[in-house]
Amino acid sequence: MAVTGLSRLYGNGCINQMGELAQLLGRTKALIVADKGIMQTDIVDRIKAGLDNENIAYAVYDKNEPNPPIRASEEAYEMLVAEGCDFIIGVGGGSNMDCAKGVNILKHNPAPLMQYANFAKPFNVGDGLIMVPTTAGTGSEMSDGAILSDENHIKQNFIADGAFADYCVIDPELMAGMPPKLTASTGLDALAHAIESHMGTLNNDFIQFMAEKTIDQIAEYLPIAVADGKNMEARGKMAVAAAVGGYLLVYGHTCAGHSIGQTLGGYFNIPHGTACAYALPWVIEFNAPAIPAIVKRIGEALGCEFSGSETPEQIGAMVRDAFIVFRDEKCKLPSIKTFDYDESKFDEIAQVCADEFFQQFNPRTMTKDDCLAVLKNMYA
Ligand SMILES: [Fe+2]
């Protein structure tokens, strides 16, 4: 196959080119990393059909879980070795793509995986990884990190410079079947990536350029995708926004919204985007005194009209409320109280949130008591 035959890796139906891509990369057998939910769709069958067309073999690991455990990556890696696979296709939302990244780390570095968490030990960046997002949210397809849970349900960050997938195949058709709740939760995660990278201490002109466009695009198209999942223009715009959000994760990271959101998600098994979307308005308000102009720009995208005489605190409160209206009324995200929770754990969780890795990028230092106040507001 000529290189020019691989016409596109973004667009409706581009998933059908998976076999051509594998052939171009000189690979012979794929480990497809999925979960039970993805196996109930025709997506893996479409990938298999593309691979069959080019005589590329495959094995499927379908036992991954939400908030992916480190042990799932280890199990899938054992399958990769046993089956003699020479590349990995992560297909699904962030959970499956992150699980696949964990497999790829093990493919190129000695076990155990946990030794590479949170920059404790550098790991080699290895090739042989293709991402197929089926949601528009996590940006894992474009980011250089994976978030995996240890045996205590604590989220661990596995990040390395340049640890990107070789390719991501972004096909909005694969996202058209997402129900409204999942569309909202994942889309709000992408919005959180753009907002938090823009608020964070690594913000610069480059990040601002991408973050503002991403925020604007999600503010316009996420409510449409939630209301009409078959609207392919909205699905395409969200797929691109989510991927750019992944790029923002690489260069801008997140800040306190994700520190609290992903910690809470790990404790109470709340979908990542939902937990972040509940934490974020309170974090935006908390940060407004330090970065009022940035918070104001975020508010404008969400429909705020400012007179120009607002104090930073007033800006924070207005944008907090605008975010909540966007989340609850336009995106119709269900209440966080629909997930089981235990208030007696809040004190312990607040400490983990305050110590979490991404707090270092928040523009204002957030203490344990600040985190506890956010948790209480989220559940008020
Ligand atoms: Fe996220």
The arrangement of helices and strands along the chain is HEHHEHEHEEEEHHHHHHHHH
Shape: globular
Annotation, overall tally of beta strands: 7
Physical arrangement of strands within the biggest beta sheet: 2-1-3-4-7
**CATH architecture assignment of the largest domain:** Up-down Bundle
Number of helices: 14
Strand portion: 5-15%
What value does the average pLDDT take?
Answer: 95
The end-to-end distance, rounded to whole angstroms, is 59 Å
* CATH class membership of the largest domain: Mainly Alpha
How many structural domains? 2
The quaternary structure here is single chain
Radius of gyration: 20 Å
Question: Can you tell me the CATH superfamily of the largest domain?
Answer: Dehydroquinate synthase-like - alpha domain
Ligands, deduplicated: fe (ii) ion
Based on secondary structure, the structural category is alpha/beta
Helix content: 40-55%
Q: Report the sheet with the most strands, covering strand number, pairing sense and barrel closure.
A: 5 strands, parallel
Low confidence ranges: 1-5
Kindly identify the CATH topology of the largest domain: Dehydroquinate synthase-like, alpha domain
